[in-house]
Amino acid sequence: HAREILKIRETLNKIINHHTGQPLEKIQEDTDRDYFMTAKEACAYGVVDEVIKSIAK
C-alpha cells in the first residue's frame, strides 16, 4: 500500500506542477505536510485563477 500512496502522490505532484508551473521540488516540499495559503498566496502559487472579493447581489 505504501508504494501505491507514493505513486499517487508523485502523480498528483506532477499534475500540480503542470497546472501551476511551480518547480516539482517545491511542490514536493509544500505537499509533504499540511500547507495553508491565503487567497492571494494561492493565486500567486497558481492553484486558483483569481480571488473574488465579493459577490454582487
UniProtKB/TrEMBL annotation:
Descriptive protein name: ATP-dependent Clp protease proteolytic subunit
GO MF terms on file? ATP-dependent peptidase activity; ATPase binding; serine-type endopeptidase activity
- According to the record, the segments passing through the membrane are none
Q: Which GO terms describe its biological process?
A: protein quality control for misfolded or incompletely synthesized proteins
Q: Name one Pfam family in it.
A: CLP_protease
InterPro entries, sorted? ClpP/crotonase-like_dom_sf (IPR029045), ClpP/TepA (IPR023562)
Q: Looking at the UniProt record for this protein, which Gene Ontology cellular component terms does it annotate, in alphabetical order?
A: endopeptidase Clp complex
Gene3D superfamilies from the xrefs? Answer: 2-enoyl-CoA Hydratase, Chain A, domain 1 (3.90.226.10)
